[in-house]
Design goal:
- This protein has 238 residues and is α+β, with helices and mostly antiparallel strands.
- It has two domains: 22-106, SH3 type barrels; 123-218, Beta-lactamase Inhibitory Protein, Chain:B, domain 1.
- It is built from three helices and twelve strands; from the N terminus they run αββββββββααββββ.
- The strands form three sheets. Strands 1, 2, 5, 6, 7 and 8 form a six-stranded antiparallel sheet that branches. It has a four-stranded antiparallel sheet with strand order 9-10-11-12, with no helix packed on it. A two-stranded antiparallel sheet has the order 3-4.
- The N and C termini lie far apart (61 Å).
């Protein structure tokens, strides 16, 4: 390859490689199972007011300090645990993003700390249900889709009171069918596969009102008959 063509090839390749690395790095930052990432839940960002200068840490355990978050500003809330928040705002000199303790903030909602703890507890429970491919009363339809995928059948009813409906999931399994054969030469008896059918294994019916699950019916008992319930999605208006 000519030197000029080689340089052009590298010039085109390097930005793509850098972009891939940035995407991988972002996915790693957003993959902590003990963290709830708010951009996945809300179309509009949640904001908090900073009332005190506060240390900012790169980790949620508070071991590695990045700098100081300045008071008298509004920051964007990006992620939460039950004890600390990840925010993006202005530091001593430039912009800064990291983990900050709740005592540094205030909100129009005086119960914002308790409400964020409730949100955190709900989302951790929902994430566990989704990973286990289970659904519960109080989940949203989007969360049901993440857990079970696209429903087999749907029915929707709209009235002046809102929208209700039912999603039906049918689980199938492959069943192999055999026939008995006798070898005409040796007389040996053996089984031969004749065909494979898809047969219903279980059924899950999800009833909802205004996109929130109100009832779950399962034809196959996986949890000893216990009804799984989570807190309905929280609405933040500050």
């Amino acid at each position: 390859m000519k030197p000029g063509l080689l340089l052009l090839f590298l010039a085109l390749l390097l930005p793509v490689s850098a972009q891939i690395q940035r995407k991988e790095r972002k996915s790693l930052l957003d993959s902590d199972p003990g963290v709830v990432y708010l951009e996945r839940l809300f179309a509009e960002p949640l904001e908090l007011k900073v009332i005190k200068d506060a240390p900012v840490f790169s980790d949620k355990e508070g071991k590695h300090r990045l700098g100081t978050l300045k008071a008298d500003q509004t920051v964007r809330l990006e992620a939460i645990t039950d004890r600390i928040y990840r925010v993006r705002g202005r530091g001593t000199r430039d912009g800064i993003a990291g983990w900050v303790a709740p005592w540094a903030f205030t909100s129009a909602d005086p119960q914002f700390v308790a409400r964020l703890k409730e949100l955190y507890g709900r989302q951790i429970q929902v994430q566990a249900l989704i990973e286990a491919r289970q659904v519960a009363v109080g989940m949203t339809l989007d969360e049901v889709s993440q857990a079970l995928g696209k429903p087999t059948k749907t029915s929707i009813r709209k009235t002046e009171k809102g929208e209700s409906g039912r999603w039906e999931y049918i689980q199938y399994e492959e069943v192999k069918h055999y026939i008995t054969r006798v070898d005409p030469v040796t007389g040996a008896v053996f089984r031969q596969l004749s065909h494979i059918t898809q047969e219903e294994k279980g059924r899950t019916n999800v009833e909802f009102q205004d996109s929130v699950v109100t009832a779950v019916e399962e034809s196959e008992d996986r949890q000893g008959g216990n009804v799984r319930i989570v807190v309905p999605p929280l609405v933040f208006g500050w």
